[in-house]
Write the structure tokens for this entry.
Amino acid sequence: MCASVKYGSRGPALIPRMKTKYRIYYITLFSVVLLGLIATGIYYITLFSVVLLGLIATGMFQFWPHSIESSAEWSLDRRSVHDAPLVRIPMSSPIPERGDLSCRMHTCFDVYRCGYNPKNKIKVYIYPLQRFVDEVGVPISSTGLSREYNDLLSAISDSDFYTDDVSRACLFIPSIDVLNQNSLRIRETAQALAMLPRWDKGMNHLLFNMLPGGPPDYNTALDVPRDRALLAGGGFSTWTYRQGYDVSIPVYSPLSVEVDLPERQPGPRRYFILSSQTAIHREYRVELERLKEENGEALLLLDKCSNLSQGLASVRKRCYKGQVYDYPQILQESSFCVVLRGARLGQATLSDVLQAGCVPVIMADSYILPFSEVLDWKRASVVIPEEKLPEMYTILKSIPHRQVEEMQRQARWFWEAYFSSMKAIGMTTLQIINDRIYPYAALTYEEWNNPPVVKWTSVNSPLFLPLIPPRSPGFTAVVLTYDRIESLFRVITEISKVPSLAKLLVVWNNQNKSPPEESLWPKVAVPLKVLRTKENKLSNRFFPFDEIETEAVLAIDDDIIMLTSDELQFGYEVWREFPDRLVGYPGRLHLWDHEMGKWKYESEWTNEVSMVLTGAAFYHKYFNYLYTYKMPGDIKNWVDAHMNCEDIAMNFLVANITGKAPIKVTPRKKFKCPECTAIDGLSLDQTHMVERSECINKFASVFATMPLKVVEHRADPVLYKDDFPEKLKSFPNIGSL
Amino acid sequence: MQARKKYVLLGLCMCCWLLLYYWGGLQERLLGLITHKRGEVARPWPSWLDRDLLPGYADQAELQNDGGSGDSPRQRRQSWAGIYKDSRCRMDTCFDFARCQGQSGFRVYIYPPEKGERVSESYHKILTSVVESRYYTSDPREACLFVLGIDTLDRDQLSTQFVPNVDERIRGYPLWNDGRNHVIFNLYSGTWPNYTEDLGFNVGQAILAKASLNTEHFRPGFDISIPLFSKEHPQKGGERGWLVRNTVPPRRKYLLMFKGKRYLTGIGSDTRNALHHIHNGKDIVSLTTCRHGKDWEKHKDTRCDHDNQEYERFDYQELLHNSTFCLVPRGRRLGSFRFLESLQAACIPVLLSNGWELPFSDVIQWNQAVIEGDERLLLQVPSTVRAVGIDRVLALRQRTQMLWEAYFSSVDKIVLTTLEIIKDRVYSHISRNKFMWNALPGGLLVLPEYSTHLAHYPFYYLNLGISPGQEFTAVIHATSPLVSQSQPIMKLLQVVSKSKYCSQIIILWNSEKPPPHRSKWPPMPVPLIITDGRRKGSIQTSSRFLPHAAIETEAVLSLDEDTVLLTSEIDFAFHVWRSFPERIVGYPPRSHFWDPVKKAWGYTSKWTNEYSIVLTGAAFYHRYYHHLFSHYLPSSLRALVDRTSNCEDILMNFLVSSVTNLPPIKVAQRKQYKEMPTLQGTKTAPWVNPEHFTQRQECVSTFASWFGYMPLVHSQFRLDPVLFKDHVSVLRKRYKDLERV
């Protein structure tokens, strides 16, 4: 087949040829020198060294030609599209069948080509460029390769999706440009498609088309027969769009590269509704004008400028009663912009409108909005049935102001992410197909639809389901200790009185000393296990040990002996109602120091709380996993190096991922063990406090935000301090020690 | 010697050369590999020298002026209706929107049952759901949507439930109109051996709400795929999901399981016959039995005996509870009971049902709750599910529960979701977006008539990264006439208006006397609005939760006229509410309990260690709950409240807890929020009346039966100011007044 004529013999095929050439040259040179030397009868040592030299030289030479080759490749790269090989289509060349409307991924797409792939990324192959002509030499397309299609293909070839290995490809993209059907000869284009070496009934082939159909009836999908090929089309109606198979794409507006419209703050604009399209059907225009009459200045109805000559100028100007406006700049002056269907459903205006951050009012019945499979257009546009055009004003007026602002922001974000360039359009299309083939790795609704500013501030808690876990599994107490055995034993004895305690884990952080013998430990009713660590690191206390079998973890220091059993049990009960939060006893606060211009740590008696110390706190075991494996930046190492602030880090982590404040339980008490002196107890040292302020600043910069939330409440038992018989209270012994 | 040396040397050289050659050859291949790899990263699509000279794909003028065609849009739209019918139906062409534009809005009519008509249990439940929904009408003239009285659920001709002659019968209905604006529910279509989508009668332009819909036959944006549910599926309420806690690591005993029939021949057998391949007896348990139907032994193959034996070794319920993933392969039809079963069991469904249009696929993002496998790639399923990380397992599992409880746990929810989806299409500019459908608490509890703006709802603040507003509106429910300036309401007005967060006060006048003139009220630093809550002069207790347009803030402070509170108590409660905007946050706690003797729910106002209700006589909540109370709850419950002038506060607690699945929040110490009635009082407060209390007991039971379950949840804590009653100087305390209560 003549289609197999390839200019593209770059790549591996080129190397052996070049190399042979160099090798012959080299052998000759080498042999001549060698023979000459032998003939002159120089000693064999010299000869040997020559041979060795030769060896080295050969080895080096082996590599040289390649650099020469790649530069040759580079020069090959810089070619004109007119150098692409010419392919003549025989008259009788087969024509593919028209697209099958019942095609779906599971019937018309060969998944075996995509295979199981740990990266969950499809491989896309692009056919090399060819210039197809019919038997008499007339090209199949009046434009040939367009700038936009070239940009699209080079973007794809630059992306992770690309492969140049046909045999590994899952998706094939022909280099035949079918973006605009008007410039195509339908029959010949179809024949050209069928001539592609891997066409195979169009299986796994993807075509991009933005302007489908032609006069007079303008079909809503590309008219080129294409067998089973997928179509990324820019004007589908619900009757031509094969849901879950085709991809609806925008009609790219070349204006977006010509005109730079800086993002405008969302808010009310000079006009409420703007209609900027020039080729609106008379019937619509009559209705729009009636609306204008009713609502006056709020509407701006623009049209072509009659006095301007045709050409570029007319494309960038709009007029109303002799007044001239710049297009698309004028779009930024309106809250809503009308996007009516023309002969085609897809309109390039939509792209301009979105770019201007104007909320599109789309009136095109049966139109499948661009990327509607993944984008939630209700958040960025208003879709009104054509019939309801007269009610447009009332409908739009009923939308709350704040929502209009959200929509303006959303519209602009959609443009930036999915409309702004051919690259954006191409990548989005491939990602959508990728999501279908690897649905378990698909992007989420939030990833597709939330603009960066929302992604940045919003939280999607990993424990989002409102659950109050049952009391019965109880909690696991994890006591971090170094060598304060006496105090540790007192803590263990105290905790063991708590009814819901399920297990005690002692994290023995002292590598130089062994834990006391088993017989010396206090006798407790629950399993007690000592875990010896390899290094004395604070983060050991937050390790997700397999031994923790309950959801709830009580982290407790070996010197916290002032908590009563009622207080601990109550803390557990509160945690059950807030399983996604830190529930702890001593509360702390972060403050903004205006003088210093940075965050400050506060442990005084304050009316507010933003952290609880993990010297005594309940939390979900999931956070251990997060702390150990998902802590951002170098925080974990930093904490271990400074032997401080592990609790602050935990508070940051939890607040950041849940967006919620911790819960402080029970009244305040002095958290200091009577025995320990000020020097011994870590948290009393003055420098220690300075360091903790530093921690907050450090963590805030790593998280790039201040996730901590300040609250003014703490949790107490319902009947706390109430005039009520103590023995009837569930938790009578609160705040006594 | 010389010559020998020469030969040796020459020989050596030759050897070296040969070595070199081979080495070189090897090099070449290695290099080939290297450059090959480089080829992937290099730019294979050339950057053309004449890139800038390439023509645009379309002329700008062409892009802007494509309107040329002369057809009248109106005519085109009219002609569509004639072209796009039956299998090409869309809302635009097969649905009469005009029927829904009337005064009554979205109304659903059910054809009256004919004499001797037998209706299956499931269909009966569907009809009941429609009748009890807020959209039901008995007048076909105001209906927007019609539901047949004929049972169309089982259209398998071999089934005993099959109703014959449907075609002739529906054609006789004057309202049928070729099925326009009708919705037809169906669970089983087609029959052995092919189980096609055929219903055995012409559905015409009716919307199909059908289980096991195939993507090819599905009319997008028109039909609705519903889940297959059994006849035991509860009418309302329904069982909760089985997930009670999020264990970490989230893996359960088994990774993947399936236990079910395998068809030896016929449609759907390929998939099920292959399932044994992934069974490993350890973490993947995939069991099939050949034993079903009468003549299975006729088709029996070599594996059957072994499989049947293995099948008996495992218990389905045990597997369901202890498996991380559950295979949901297609049966004869595309959908199977397993889908809902595993969804409820928080066993992440792994679908093997190519071409199945998933239930409510219009609105639900299924890839966040299930793993969509491919029948063709069965053998990849184990490695796929093994590769799912723990974060994703946790997320998927919680989402199964969210979807189960929001849309599937009862027939009521399935039917209501179907209706709401149609309603969203009919009033498309006042409809829910995908986010509302997929975030907690689910689309049924989001009424787009209230607002289409996410930030106007109490549940989405965190998802949007915003926090609730800084102001509240106080709504005071006034029931007694204004006689003196020393009345409790006067004091209350002073207290409330002193709060710096209060932006307006609304007095809801619900007394027998007409509301007094504005001049009778004291001057206020904030706007004071008097609203007449009475309807036709009679007291409407439920009107206290009407969605008064005057409420401008998100937070509502609901007060009784005789509530006693301090300004600082109000401020503190408001602060707490801003942390829990989706809950009721307030002072007077009450509790419900199960009375095993009476076998009924009880209500208590005694002081207890826990509470499940916070009375709305002194509580904050989001204004959206006013809307839900008035539009989501059935009029029968609101009528009960009006009739007895009681229980509206309990009902509000039921409502909010059913939305959040969480208890309300009691703040600070105050429990008594009213002055004890003095003996000389002219009119005793209604709550002193013992009958009032009995009524409340009954209310709890009535409400629980409407909800189908008991939504109230107990809590054991209250929230106090951080330094409440701490041993520290009062001067340090922001809410020192609270300690004097």
